[in-house]
Amino acid sequence: MSLANRYRGGENLVLQWITSGGTFTLSDDYTTLDVDKSIDLIEVTAGSEADKVFVNGIKDGSAKLTFYAQGAGGTANEAQLVEGTAGTLIYSPRGTAAGKPKRGFAAIIKSGSEKWPNDEAAEVSVEWQKQGAMVYAVPTTW
Fold first, then answer.
1. Domain 11-137 has CATH 2.40.30
2. Which of 35, 43, 103, 130 has the fewest Cβ atoms nearer than 10 Å?
């Protein structure tokens, strides 16, 4: 593979968390966004089949964002990242210019964690549980 074809993730990533409280951009000072997608596989092996056979079941997914705590400046965003909050998570790995892909899903915040070390940067993380289908789009505008 040509070096020119290798994608370096992160530098253009834009994240939005849309709730009844408004649209919150979560792109500042993030360190990692992990998105996991899976599907249940239902075994349907029958009779004298020598190998297992599966069919697709129900899809699942989650996302976890880790970012540096912003102190007083990040209070508005962090207040929207409370367990049980429902909304829509939208993320665009390549920025918001026309023609750049964006993805997302309706979700509920499943968990959150805070790390307050004595001699390092404070980190916050939040995990969303997908509910409903993934959305893949190439918007003309954001």
1. yes
2. 43
Q: Which of 3, 117, 10 is nearest to 65 (CA)?
A: 10
CB 132 within 8 A of CB 108: no
Band of pLDDT at residue 8, cut at 50, 70 and 90: low
Q: Tell me: pLDDT of 3 over 70.
A: no
Q: What is the spatial distance between Cα 21 and Cα 133, in angstroms, rounded to a whole number?
A: 23
List the one residue out of 129, 58, 33, 48 whose CA is nearest residue 88. 129
Strands 135-137 and 102-115 turn out to be: antiparallel
Q: Can you list the pairs that 108-112 forms with residues at least 24 positions away whose Cβ atoms lie under 8 Å? A: 108/84, 109/81, 109/82, 109/83, 109/84, 109/85, 110/62, 110/83, 111/83, 112/81, 112/82, 112/83
* 76-107 pLDDT tens trace: 777 889 999 999 999 988 888 888 888 999 99
pTM score, two decimals?
Answer: 0.83
Q: Burial code of 55-93, b = ≥16 C-beta within 10 A, e = fewer?
A: eeeeeebbbbbbbeeeeeebeebbebbeeebebbbbbbb
At residue 32, the 3 state secondary structure works out as: strand
